[in-house]
Specification:
The protein has 21 helices and 2 strands. By secondary structure, it is mainly alpha-helical. Helix 7 packs antiparallel against helix 8 (about 195-210) and helix 11 (about 260-275) packs across helix 12 (about 275-285).
Length: about 425
C-alpha cells in the first residue's frame, strides 16, 4: 500500500545472536517500489508468459521481496524463458530435476558420502590416486553407519587404476568441505548440518560435471544464496549453474594466469579512461594490475555487503544486464552462434532488456560487452578516489581503505553510479 512504512528484512535471513559484528542491512521492503508477490503474480498472462519488461522496471526501483526472490532469480539468470508457459516450465523443471539426480547418483556411486547428509574436510586421496587414512575423515563419515571414506576409495582402487577425472574430482572434495564450513556461518540457516551438506553436495556435483573449472574458492559464496532461496536442491543447483555460465571465466585458471585477470585488466582500462589521475597513482604504488579488487569481482561483493544487501545488489545487476535471449543462448548455444553469423533473426525488444543491456545494444562492436560488475568496482574506486589519492602511500593502504567500506556501501547508489560511469566510458572511449 502506498505510504506504508518500509519493512525490515532481518527475519528472512536470521543472524545467529552471538554474531554481533556483521554489517547492518540497508535494504528494506518498500511498498509500491519493491517487487511484491502480488505484483509478481500479476505480471503473468493466464497461460504463464511473463511481462519481463514491467518486472525489470520494478526490480530496478526497489529490489525483490524475499518471499519470491528465488523464483524471480530463476528468470533473471536464464533458467526459464519469460515467453514460456506454466506447463512448459513445469516440464523443463522436471527434466532438470531428473538430470541433477542422475549426476548426483553418478557422484554417489564413486564416493557415497555425496547425498549421505555428511561431508568431508580432509583429503581422501593422493595425487597418484592412493587412499589416505585421515582420522578426521573417519570421524566425519561416521563409520558406525556407513563404510568410511578410506574404505570407499579402497573399494574404487580395487577395480584398477582410477581415471584422471575421478582422481581430480576426489582431490577437490575436502577443499569444498573446508569452504562450506566457512560460508555464511553467521546465518541461523547454516546451524543445520543438513543445509551445509546440501551446499557440499551441489558444489561436488558441479565440480564433477564442469571438468574445466571443477571447484575454486569463492564458488561456495555464490552458491550459498541459491540453497537458502530455493527449497528444492536440484532447482538451487540449476540456478547456481546458470550463474556460473556468467562467471566461470573468472574461475578458469592456467599455470600462468587466473581467469579473473581479464576483468582486472578491463577494470584498469576503464579507470584509466574515467579517472586517469587515480589510475596513475595506483600504478605508481605498484597496483596497476588491480589485484586489490580481485575479491570484489570473484564473489560479486559478497564480503563488502551484508548477506541481504549483496542479494539486493545481485538482482539489481542482473535486472540491469538482462537479455531476453539469455535462456535460448544457454539452452542452444550452437544455434545462437549460427544465428549471429548468418541471418539476423528476430530483433530483441528493447522493452524486455535491462537498462545496461540497452546501452550495450547501441554499440556497434563485435567484442563482448564488459559486465556491469567491472563498472561497479570502478564506481567504488571513483567514490574513494580523493581518499586514495591523499592517503594511500602503498598497496596496504589501498586495501585498508577499500576494506573500510564493508557495510557502508549502498547497493542501489552503486548501480546508479555504475550506469553513469558506463555511459561516460563509452563516450570517452569513442573519442580515443
Amino acid at each position: 500500500m502506498w505510504g506504508a512504512p518500509a519493512e525490515p528484512v532481518d527475519s528472512y535471513y536470521a543472524v545467529r545472536p552471538e554474531c554481533t559484528d556483521v554489517p547492518v542491512t540497508k535494504f528494506k521492503i518498500k511498498p509500491g517500489k519493491t517487487l511484491s508477490a502480488r505484483k509478481w503474480q500479476a505480471a503473468f498472462s493466464p497461460d504463464g508468459q511473463l511481462d519481463i519488461g514491467k518486472t525489470l522496471h520494478r526490480i530496478q526501483r526497489g529490489g525483490i521481496h524475499p518471499s519470491i526472490r528465488g523464483e524471480v532469480w530463476e528468470f533473471l539468470l536464464g533458467c526459464y524463458d519469460p515467453k514460456s508457459t506454466f506447463d512448459e516450465r513445469e516440464q523443463i523443471q522436471e527434466q532438470r530435476r531428473v538430470q541433477y539426480a542422475r549426476w548426483k547418483n553418478e557422484c554417489s556411486e564413486i564416493f557415497p558420502v555425496v547425498g549421505s547428509g555428511k561431508f568431508i574436510t580432509a583429503p581422501v586421496i593422493t595425487e597418484s590416486g592412493q587412499p589416505i587414512q585421515d582420522p578426521l575423515v573417519l570421524l566425519e563419515t561416521n563409520p558406525g553407519t556407513n563404510p568410511n571414506s578410506t574404505q570407499m576409495v579402497e573399494e574404487l582402487t580395487k577395480r584398477g587404476p582410477l581415471d584422471k577425472k575421478v582422481i581430480q574430482w576426489l582431490l577437490t572434495l575436502h577443499q569444498i568441505g573446508l569452504d562450506v564450513n566457512r560460508t555464511d556461518r553467521t546465518l541461523v540457516f547454516y546451524e543445520k548440518r543438513e543445509n551445509l551438506s546440501k551446499l557440499w553436495d551441489i558444489l561436488s556435483v558441479y565440480a564433477w560435471i564442469d571438468t574445466d573449472v571443477g571447484y575454486c574458492q569463492g564458488m561456495s559464496d555464490l552458491c550459498s544464496p541459491m540453497i537458502i532461496l530455493l527449497e528444492d536442491e536440484a532447482d538451487a543447483f540449476w540456478c547456481f549453474e546458470r550463474l556460473m555460465r556468467r562467471l566461470r571465466g573468472n574461475f578458469r585458471c592456467t599455470e600462468s594466469s587466473v581467469g579473473v585477470e581479464t576483468q582486472l585488466t578491463n577494470l584498469a582500462a576503464v579507470t584509466q579512461v574515467i579517472d586517469p589521475k587515480l589510475h596513475q597513482h595506483l600504478e605508481a604504488l605498484g597496483g596497476g594490475d588491480y589485484l586489490f579488487a580481485f575479491r570484489m569481482l570473484m564473489v560479486l561483493f559478497r564480503r563488502e555487503f551484508s548477506f541481504c544487501d549483496s542479494l539486493y545488489l545481485w538482482e539489481m545487476m542482473w535486472a540491469l544486464e538482462y537479455d531476453p535471449d539469455l535462456f535460448s543462448l544457454y539452452e542452444n548455444p550452437a544455434s545462437n552462434a549460427e544465428k549471429a553469423e548468418g541471418s539476423k533473426g528476430k530483433p530483441k525488444s528493447i522493452r524486455q532488456c535491462g537498462k545496461y543491456e540497452r546501452e550495450n545494444m547501441k554499440i556497434k562492436s563485435s567484442d563482448a560487452p564488459l559486465p556491469i560488475s567491472v563498472f561497479l568496482v570502478a564506481s567504488v574506486l571513483k567514490d574513494k578516489s580523493s581518499k586514495l589519492l591523499q592517503e594511500a602511500r602503498g598497496l596496504d593502504d589501498v586495501v585498508k581503505i577499500l576494506n573500510d567500506m564493508t557495510g557502508n556501501l549502498d547497493a542501489k547508489k552503486a548501480c546508479i553510479e555504475a550506469l553513469k560511469l558506463h555511459k561516460k566510458y563509452l563516450k570517452k572511449a569513442k573519442k580515443t
